[in-house]
Amino acid sequence: MDIDFRLAIVLAPIAIAAGWAVFNIGAAALRQIQGFLDREA
C-alpha cells in the first residue's frame, strides 16, 4: 500500500492550518474558562 505523495502535499498545508487554528482557539478558550473559574471562586 503506497501513499500518494501528491495527496500528502495537498493535505499538509490544510492540516497545518487546522492545527494552528485549534492551538490558538484552544489557548483562548482555556484563558476564558480560567477567567470564569477565577470570577466564580
Give the class from helix and strand content and strand pairing: mainly alpha
- Helix share, percent: over 70%
- Provide the gyration radius in Å: 18 Å
| Major sheet summary line | none
Mean pLDDT: 91
> What's the total number of strands?
0
State the helix count: 1
Indicate the proportion of strand residues. Answer: under 5%
Transmembrane segments: 6-30
Function: Loosely associated component of the core of photosystem II (PSII). PSII is a light-driven water plastoquinone oxidoreductase, using light energy to abstract electrons from H(2)O, generating a proton gradient subsequently used for ATP formation.
Lumenal side: 1-6, 26-41
Subcellular location: Cellular thylakoid membrane; Membrane
Describe, in short, the structure shown.
Helices cover 88% and strands 0% of the residues. The chain has 41 residues and is mainly α. The longest helix is centred in the middle third of the chain and has 36 residues, at 5-40.
